[in-house]
Amino acid sequence: MVDAVVLAGAANAKRLRAVSREPYEALIPVADRRMVDFVVAALEESPSVTRAAVVGPVPQLKYLEQGKVKAVLPCAGSVMDNLRQGLEWLQPQGYVLVATSDIPLLTAAAVEDFLKRAQATQADFYYSIVEKGVGEARYPGVKRTYVRLKDGTFTGGNLFLFHPRIVDRVWRLAEEMVRLRKQPLKMCSLLGWGQVLRLVLGQLTIAAVEQRFAEIAGAVGKAVISPYPEVGIDVDKPSDYELVQRFMGWGGKTWSGGAGLNG
Hints:
Helix content is 36%, strand content 20%. By secondary structure, it is α/β, with parallel strands linked by helices. Residues 252-263 have low confidence and may be disordered.
């Protein structure tokens, strides 16, 4: 059983302004609901999640404060600041699941599968990844940032699991990883230029990344290969938005408003 933090504080200040004028990405309508609503619904339906905190614009998201969502907390600044905000409120005793609010295709089955696979190994930190072929088979036309490893070609997912005991130890590294998350070569450089060379040559393995992470962070990290591409389809550009709308059967229609989960 885990607590969860939903990160819903990203300002809608970049490419998604073309599809919505909402001030926060979490508020952007997808089908007939806000994007964050689908993520919260997946956590609500996941038996392994006990409590959740949503960090985002409180006035617009207060309606989420029901069921497993025990608090909607104000944005604190950066992604990592928002995460700390959620942790300080939850005061978790065990592992914490983190989900971003921009993965509206997420399902409870995907959440449960990620947690089950993580529990099969011993680590301080777990990061979801999805193989390229899995995503493209299920969602033709999907465009993601991929990394070619010796084990296969993967995109990063948007589910994370970690134990709070490592927070202070890895905070600075985590901030840099978040900042460079869309730039694989630069992110890999955090592990050393030898790893970058292996990546360029297609010789870098998941095990090598995990080992180097442990050496640098002083914590055990594990990649969890998810068979659910939904964990890796975050909506951060118009083409993502159109793909999600299409697969939800909404086509090119737009949303006129509403209160979210309770309609």
